[in-house]
Amino acid sequence: MNNSLKSLAAFTAFAALALGASAQPAPKVLVVDMSKLFATHWKTAEHQAKLQSDQQKAQEEIEKMNKEGNALVEEYKSLGEQANNPALSADGKKKAQEEAQKKLEGIQGKQRAIQEFVENARNSMGQRDQNFRGMMVEDITKVASEIAKKKGANMLFDKSALLYFDGNFEVTDDVVKELAKDRPANAAVPAAPAAAPASATPAISVPGISPKK
User: Fold this and answer.
1) Which pTM was predicted?
2) Residue 139 pLDDT more than 90?
3) What is the number of structural domains in the chain?
4) How far apart are CA 69 and CA 44, in angstroms?
5) Which of 81, 143, 163, 199 is most solvent-facing, going by the fewest CB within 10 Å?
6) Does pLDDT of 111 surpass 50?
7) 107 lies in some domain
8) Sign of the dihedral defined by the CA atoms of residues 83, 87, 90, 96, in that order
9) pLDDT (tens digit, 9 = 90+) per residue, 35-77?
10) What single DSSP character describes residue 162?
11) DSSP at 192
């Protein structure tokens, strides 16, 4: 779980779950694992599957654009060879050079288009991931709060913020069960309660287009 999710989870849980502690002589504290709750939630699996699908589509579009750019590169090289052909007339060489320049400009434009596409895709997916995480922290905290109240707690902490606690005070599994109640029958489920990735920002690769003059 990344630092932003940890800090937000800890702050939200603490603020939302200080259930009248000042009015009770002996506060009852419970502990929950926000990282596990996030990683094992069916909505997280669904969200990550959608991001991966969109990442694959973006990668395919980039490869298509790069293929078009490489085709321009081959045309540029061919025109360069024509311009250097000693058997070609002066007018022919000039025409080939002018066409080669236009191809070079087209290649540079394609490079810019690819870079802009990649940047937009990364920003869009990164923002979606950030919004999703914020929503999930809010939803998970709400459910965890209700369970803590039912158990008579007046405080609930994220275990990542504690140096030590007795395992008997952890209610993570109870929250996991509660969160799973609204899971659709066909919803994807994480295979194991592994920690969620720090970020789902797509690792889109950018093939190079490099004409040689």
Assistant:
1) 0.70
2) yes
3) 1
4) 37
5) 163
6) yes
7) yes
8) negative
9) 999 999 999 999 999 999 999 999 999 999 999 999 999 999 9
10) -
11) S
